[in-house]
Amino acid sequence: MNIILLGYPGSGKGTLAKDLFRALDMVHVSTGDILRDEMGKKTPLGLEASSYMAGGRLVPDSLVMEMLKARLGAETRGLLFDGFPRTVAQAEMLDAWFVSRGQEIDSVVFLNVAEDVVMKRLGSRRTCSGCGKIYNVISNPPAREGVCDACGKPLMTREDDRPEVISKRIQVYKDQTEPLLAYYRASGNFLEADGGQAPETVTRSVLGLLRVKP
Ligand code: AMP
Known about the structure:
Elements: E1 3-6, H1 13-24, E2 27-30, H2 31-40, H3 44-54, H4 61-72, E3 79-82, H5 88-101, E4 107-112, H6 115-123, E5 125-128, E6 134-136, E7 155-156, H7 163-177, H8 179-185, E8 190-194, H9 199-209
Helix pairs in contact: 1-9, 2-3, 4-5, 6-7
Bound molecules: adenosine monophosphate.
């Protein structure tokens, strides 16, 4: 099974993906996480991507696609895409890649959340510097301030979760990613969930939409 998660930055794709990939035994493919990893390791790709990411712009399609092909070429498990594709050109490249592998996309899940809600969520999001677990200082704080419940490492604010970058990312989503809704709606395997609910409720409804027992 191959699944794409779509939605605004802050719509809960990452949180949902962390529940789903375990439940469905899939590979979680977060292009944002992979790019941050490349940046941390100061690879040529990471260095090239860093200025785009810091400013809230998209990394060029060809770079992202080459990075994914290199990482996933030998992968045989189902893929759960979180944050990819982000442009129609990426969606077309992904379609062609799946055709070349004799595979297809089984479901596209859109997490529908209002813009003002994602703006607030991004502003209060904290991410674990160790395991990547996502918190919200208002609605889902850790037990000890600034410390991850799961691995004990410090929580951080992502550089692109600063207020001025958040507005840019929202605009980029509207201009470049939102057209994917029409692209995938036409494909017949488009599912939509209310992403404004609590994380566990979202996971339960998405598993229901995918017809998987939690
Ligand atoms: P995310 O963690 O998904 O919010 O992604 C963080 C940043 O990484 C984005 O704002 C982009 O700069 C970059 N990025 C992640 N995924 C993609 C993608 N599929 N295409 C282009 N840029 C991406």
